[in-house]
Amino acid sequence: MLIGVPKEIKNHEYRIGLTPAGARELVQHGHQVIVQNDGGKSIGLTNDLYEKAGARIVDTAEEIFAKAEMIIKVKEPQAVECQMLREGQILYTYLHLAPDPEQTAGLVKSGCTAIAYETVTDRKGGLPLLAPMSEVAGRMSIQAGAHALERAQGGSGVLLGGVPGVKPANVMVIGGGVVGINAARMAMGMNARVTILDRSLDRLKYLDELYGDRITTLYSTADAIEETLRYADLVIGAVLIPGAAAPKLVTRAQLALMKPGSVLVDVAIDQGGCFETSKATTHQNPTYEVDGIIHYCVANMPGGVARTSTFALTNATLPFAVQLANKGAKRALLDDTHLLNGLNVHAGQITYEAVARDLGYTYVPAAKALG
Ligand SMILES: NC(=O)C1=CN([C@@H]2O[C@H](COP(=O)(O)OP(=O)(O)OC[C@H]3O[C@@H](n4cnc5c(N)ncnc54)[C@H](O)[C@@H]3O)[C@@H](O)[C@H]2O)C=CC1
Ligand SMILES: CC(=O)C(=O)O
Ligand SMILES: [Mg+2]
């Protein structure tokens, strides 16, 4: 199969969809890989490294989209990329369609086969292609939040860990999954006081067994959220209902309960965000203020630490990329229900139920759409 890796074009997105080591594996399986000129240069993945791995460098994204049978990317296709996708072509990347009607319409129109990293599953009920970036974003959320708490950034001027004689900050984490546990670990490491809320009692039990009295676990109700907001200095939004738009768990009115200059980091923004006042921001302009509360809502946080993230992402995506290339989309998808769960759009049909429901499309089960 001819596999194409274009340069990412989202704001300050320096990740690339495949490392040179990943390219080498695909080539060893008998496939051809084309990579856009300087696609990974800014994170030290030079053309030379890709060529040594057996890939070929091409000048433009247009050439990659025109020639490749499978496109491997990181972020959802931007409008200009959607226009270049075509019928029968495999798109393997993050999509986050539920909050993004325009992209969804673009993919439907293209006729391509679009597999979303974030809805591929595993045997343990996890999301193995989302997990590495959730680890990154969870860890980053605390450093981003700590920075936003600095007075010069508009924050309340509180240091997460406090100092001897001055109490530490309170960090509230809503959603105790992969983002949540990584955020909690970083916050604990900085000596902050951590409260973590989730709807899954099993998950709360697991967190309690792991961290004991170093964290407080709370079952996530509107009451518990309201009560915890009153003393939180930093709130991390880390909930997920796979494939669906994020539930709004903090309203604008509830911001008035918070201390002025407190910070909300909405990691769930890529699924539309879990705070009513969230709107997606970029690494260039990451924060804004609503009613005295600082909001950080960057939808591609791992792009900020693009080198670490690129290696972590390829580690997870490569095995499925090899299956797709070896077998073709239809056989690879039908052979593996976990990969099949990643199929969101095929030949103009929406094959992921939550996306169809949230955006008003007819849902066609993936196996049926593939015929
Ligand atoms: N902004 C960014 O750059 C990035 C965003 N993300 C996003 O972060 C979000 C979280 O991802 P993961 O941690 O991997 O998901 P996960 O599935 O591991 O964890 C989500 C947790 O939310 C919990 N939850 C669901 N409804 C809840 C509620 N009402 N109250 C409290 N908890 C609730 C679930 O029980 C689960 O434990 C996703 O939207 C993901 O796409 C992930 C990576 C990067
Ligand atoms: C998961 C995601 O949206 C990202 O890594 O940018
Ligand atoms: Mg997005």
Automatic annotation (TrEMBL):
Domain Alanine dehydrogenase/pyridine nucleotide transhydrogenase N-terminal: residue ranges: 4-137
Q: Short name of one Pfam family for this protein?
A: AlaDh_PNT_C
Q: Which reaction does it catalyse?
A: L-alanine + NAD(+) + H2O = pyruvate + NH4(+) + NADH + H(+)
Q: Which stretches make up the Alanine dehydrogenase/pyridine nucleotide transhydrogenase NAD(H)-binding domain?
A: 149-297
- Active site residues per record: H96 (proton donor/acceptor), D270 (proton donor/acceptor)
Q: Which UniProt keywords apply?
A: NAD, Nucleotide-binding, Oxidoreductase
Q: Name one GO molecular function term.
A: alanine dehydrogenase activity
Question: Could you say which residues bind substrate here?
Answer: R15, K75
The EC number(s) attached to this protein equal 1.4.1.1
Where, in this chain's numbering, is NAD(+) bound?
Answer: S134, D198, R203, S220, V239, L240, V267, A268, I269, D270, V298, A299, N300, M301
What family is this? Answer: Belongs to the AlaDH/PNT family.
- NCBIfam families under this entry? alaDH
Q: What is this protein called?
A: Alanine dehydrogenase
